[in-house]
């Protein structure tokens, strides 16, 4: 099945919200649409990357990218 929707989420300092955001997206799209979720960590200074790695382990249709420096929201979105 081809992917109909790609959801790109730039991440910076969002460790406490990531799991809820991911679950909300999955709840909306699951069993209705073909989708992928792409999280782009814009060089967060908190534990966002560690949280994203845990999410990735549980979700095959999730991709995580970590930028080497902070490029800003627009740069992270374009990367995704």
Descriptive labels:
80 residues; alpha/beta; 3-stranded parallel beta sheet; 3 helices; 3 strands; 39% helix; 24% strand; globular
Task: Produce the secondary structure layout.
Blueprint: E1 5-11, H1 18-29, E2 35-41, H2 48-58, E3 62-66, H3 72-79
Parallel strand pairs: 1-2, 2-3
Description:
Helix 1 (18-29) links the parallel strand 1 and strand 2 (35-41). This protein has a three-stranded parallel β-sheet with strand order 1-2-3, sandwiched between helices. It contains three helices and three strands. The relative contact order is 0.26. The protein is α/β, with parallel strands linked by helices and 80 residues long. The protein is globular and about 35 Å long. The model has no long low-confidence stretch (mean pLDDT 94). It has helices at residues 18-29, 48-58, 72-79, and strands at residues 5-11, 35-41, 62-66.
CA gyration radius, whole angstroms: 12 Å
Quickly count the helices: 3
Q: Which segments are poorly predicted (pLDDT under 50) over 5 or more consecutive residues?
A: none
Approximately how much beta-strand content do the residues carry? Answer: 15-25%
Tally the beta strands.
3
Helix percentage: 25-40%
The average pLDDT is: 94
Termini gap: 21 Å
Question: Can you tell me the overall shape?
Answer: globular
What structural class do you assign from the helix and strand content? alpha/beta
In N-to-C order, the SSE pattern is EHEHEH
